[in-house]
Amino acid sequence: MHRWIRGTALVCALLATGATTGCGAESRADARPAASSATSSASSSVRHSQPSRDDRRDARAAVEAAYRTWGLKPLAAPPAPPAVKPVKLRADGGQVPVISEIPTQEKIVFLTFDDGAEKDPEFVTMMRELKVPFTMFLTDAAIRADYGYFKKLQALGNGVQNHTLTHPDLRTLGASAQRQEICGQQTRLKDEYGTAPRLLRPPYGNWNEDTRAAAASCGLEAIVLWRESMQIKNMQYQSPTGKLHPGDIILAHFRGPSELKGTTITEMTANLLRHIQEQGFTVAALEDYL
Ligand SMILES: [Zn+2]
């Protein structure tokens, strides 16, 4: 289990003392279908349906009630996804871009959960109720005991992306071994989850030019790193301001009490959402911007 723990210290930056802003209470139903809806298990296709204004108000009220149940204030509604994605991905024959943030002026951040060791059913319930979008970067060695767990999260509309077969430090491997790790997981994830990932997160954030070449040859379109890293209670900020910035990609992990000093993944996620809400940000779906 511990092989998947990132080497960063758990001692981290203090919670930013940035201004707490009230959150707008506009409907997010445009972006996410209602939990109570019979169609809630579908993802992007449902997003484009047009619920009535009453339906949207009911859905929003249900989400706000769910936030309170989890001891949280609701996040603001995210803006509509951009018509043109702001990050240029690899074109045929081109290099794979390496990104840590999304260029935007909006007060939005992007959540990513890595590895897949912890498989707490309560986390599925939480994310179904709160309708917070996130991206999963999955390692086969961590998920192979229960692929089905992540299908439930995928069915909520969340993306499944590539985090290698066995979580090596890719910089220690030669080109062909890197290709094996990346293409192997690409095939595995496509077999299990139906679509081939477009995004690669190299374990530990370590990559080199062989990684870029391997990613391209495996059909991936971008290498995605991160700006901020969620610990147990606090966020570890890269910027000395100790605050979130528009477009930040946030790293979190599928970790449970044995790795979080007794804290559950839902408690950790509640802490994460609280930091985001307190700084007046909300969460958007990474795949809508990449
Ligand atoms: Zn990892």
TrEMBL record:
CDD domains: CE4_NodB_like_6s_7s. Residues 1-24 form the signal peptide. Keywords: Signal. Residues 107-284 form the NodB homology domain. One of its GO terms (molecular function) is hydrolase activity, acting on carbon-nitrogen (but not peptide) bonds. The keyword Signal applies. InterPro entries: Glyco_hydro/deAcase_b/a-brl, NODB_dom, Polysacc_deacetylase_ArnD. Residues 51-60 have a biased composition (Basic and acidic residues). Residues 32-49 have a biased composition (Low complexity). The keyword Signal applies. GO terms for biological process: carbohydrate metabolic process. Residues 23-60 are annotated as: Disordered. This is Polysaccharide/chitin/xylan deacetylase.
